[in-house]
Known about the structure:
Two copies of one chain form a homodimer.
Chain A: E1 2-7, H1 22-37, E2 41-44, H2 58-67, E3 73-76, E4 79-80, H3 86-99, E5 104-109, H4 114-120, H5 127-143, E6 148-151, E7 156-160, E8 174-177, H6 181-190, E9 193-196, H7 202-218, E10 228-236, H8 240-261, H9 279-285, E11 287-289, H10 291-303, E12 308-312, H11 318-327, H12 329-332
Parallel strand pairs in A: 1-2, 1-12, 2-3, 3-5, 4-5, 5-8, 8-9, 9-10, 10-11, 10-12
Antiparallel strand pairs in A: 6-7
Amino acid sequence: xxxxxxxxxxxxxxxxDLDSGQGFRDYIEYNVEAEALxxxxxxxxxxxxxxxxxxxxxxxLLTWVAxxxxxxxxxxxxxxxxxxxxxxxxxxxxxxxxxxxxRLEFGVGKGYRHNEFASFCIPIEEADERFEEGLALILKxxxxxERFSHHGKFWHFENIIVEPPTRQKPHPPIWMAAGNxxxxxxxxxxxxxxxxxxxxxxxxxxxxxxxxxxxxxxMGRKFDPMDVAVSRAFFVAKNAEDKARAIEARLANxxxxxxxxxxxxxxxxxxxxxxxxxxxxxxESAMFGTPDEIAEKLARLRAAGVEHILLNxxxxxRENLRAFARDVMPAFSGPAPKAAVPRPQPQLVNS
Amino acid sequence: xxxxxxxxxxxxxxxxDLDSGQGFRDYIEYNVEAEALxxxxxxxxxxxxxxxxxxxxxxxLLTWVAxxxxxxxxxxxxxxxxxxxxxxxxxxxxxxxxxxxxRLEFGVGKGYRHNEFASFCIPIEEADERFEEGLALILKxxxxxERFSHHGKFWHFENIIVEPPTRQKPHPPIWMAAGNxxxxxxxxxxxxxxxxxxxxxxxxxxxxxxxxxxxxxxMGRKFDPMDVAVSRAFFVAKNAEDKARAIEARLANxxxxxxxxxxxxxxxxxxxxxxxxxxxxxxESAMFGTPDEIAEKLARLRAAGVEHILLNxxxxxRENLRAFARDVMPAFSGPAPKAAVPRPQPQLVNS
Lengths: 351, 351
C-alpha cells in the first residue's frame, strides 16, 4: 500500500507578539519528516476567507515544501477552479511541476462551500460551467506547443502559448474528489484519478472505490488501484481515553466545517456534507486506536483492493506521524500478500 | 552602497530530450550564490506568452529561491497588476512574505507590452484603472484585520478577510518602475519605492533620482536613498574585445525586447521604450568593462547620492557574478566616504 498525507496548515492572525508563520513552518517540517519516514505524498487543502487561517495559496506553500524534499509528491486537494484564472493557474502549477522534477499531483474541484462563492461574488450555480471551462483551458495550456486562442463563456485569450512547460507529460495527474456514484463514474470516464473523502464509512469508501473500478474496466482500460486515494483520519492512541478524546475532537471539528460550508437553508446536496454526525460514525471512519486496531481497518480496505491511502492527522502531530510509520506502515508496505508466507528462520552455522 | 540583482530565468520548451527545468535551476543556484557573495536582493521579471520561456509565475519561482536562502530580499520587477485577481495575488504574496520571514519586495506595474494586453484580451486603455483598483484592493487585503467588501469597476468581493497575514507590517514594501517626471513624482507621493530602468543613460538616471528625492523632501519627509534602486547591466570584461562583444549582444537584445513590447504603429509613449538604440548609448548606460571602468561609473552614481543598484548580468554568468563581488563590490560596500580617512597604522609593541 502507499500512504500519503492530506491536510492543511494554519497561519494565525494576531498582534506583533504572534508569529503567524509558525503554523506554516510546522507544516513544512512535518512534511519534510514525513518524506524521511516513508510517506509518499502530501495533499494540501485550499480555502479562502475562513478567518481562522486556512491555506489560501496552496501552490505557493507546496513550493516551499517541494524545495525541502526530493521524492514527496505534491498534491492539491483541491484547488477550486472557479476562483482562478485558468491560464495563470496553469503557469503557476507548471512552475512547481518543473522545479520539483515532476512531483505535482493536481487535485481540482468545483467548490462546495456556499460562503466562498458568496465572497468571490461568483454564483454557485456557475460552478459546473466554470469548472469545465477552466479545466479544459488548463489542459490545453499544458499540452499545446503551438499558440492558440480561447473564447469561452468566462475567459478570453488570444494567440497565447503558456509557459513554462510542465515536467510531467502530457501533463501532471489530475485528481478529483467525488462521492456520488454518477460523479465517480464521470471522474473515471475523464481519465482522472479519484480522491475519496475521510468522512464516509469504510464500507461506503469501498463501494465508491468499486464504482470507479467498474467504470474504468467497462471502458476497457486496465484499472490501477493507485488511481483511487481513500482519505482517512489517523491517530495512534496511547490508550482508550486518548482515543475517545480524539474522536470527540474530530466530530466537533467536522461539525464546525460542515456549518462553514453549508448553504443558509441547510440543504446542500454535496456528498461532502452528507456524513452522519455521530460519535459512532466518526469512530468507524477514522483510523484511531492502537496500531492493531488501525491495522485491522487497513486490512479491510486492502482486502477490498484499496492500495492508496491519504492520512489526515490531528494538528500535525509529529508523534502520531512517527508512530504510524513505525508501528503500522511496515506491515502494509509493498504489495498485498497473496497468501501467508512462512518467515525464514535464521540458520545456525558453525562459527 | 547596496547591490541587488535584477533578471529572469528561462524555461525552454522542447522535446523529451530537453530538460526544460535547467534554466530555472540555474537561476536558483545563481541567486543562492549571490546571497553568499554579498548581494542584497534579487528582482525577477514577469512576462506571459513570450514563446521564449520568460518567467510567468514569478512568486512561485521566488518561493523556491526563498526556501534556499536566508537573507536575500525577494523582489518582483514587476508583477503587472492588470492581469491578476488582486485578492488571490495578495494571498500568494503574503504567503511568500510569511514563509520567508518578511523578505518580499513587491514590485508592481501597470504593464507596457501591447501584445500581452492583447493576449489577455484586456484593453490596454484600462491598464491605469485596473492597476489602481488592484493595488488599493491588495493593500486593503493586507492591512484589514476585519472583514470587508469591495465593489469596484473590475472586481467584486463580499465580506472577506484575506489570509494569511503578511510578515512585514503594515505590508511589504511596494516598488514601482517609472521614468517620466510626473510618474516619478506620483510614485514618491504614494510613499512607494522607485525602480529606475537599466536603459537610461547615467545622467538620466541621476536626474530621475533627483526628481524623486525632491518630491519626497517637498512633502516634508526624510529621503532614504535606499528607496530608489537604479538598474544597470553589468559585465566584468576580460579585455576590450570581450567588452565590445557584450555591448553588441546587449543592444541586439534590447532591440528585440523593444519590438516585442511595441504597439503595431510603433508609437508607444512608454519611457521603457524611449532609449537610444545605439552602441554608444548601450555602452554608456551599461556597467561593462574592467573593474576600474565599472568602479568609475559607480562612483559617479554614488557622488550623485545613489546608494542602491540592481544589477542585470548576461545569461546569469556565475563568473561575472563572482568577479563583480570580488573586484568591484568591496570598495562600495558600506556608506559613502565623506572624506579620505587615513588608514590606521598597526602599532609596534614589544612582544
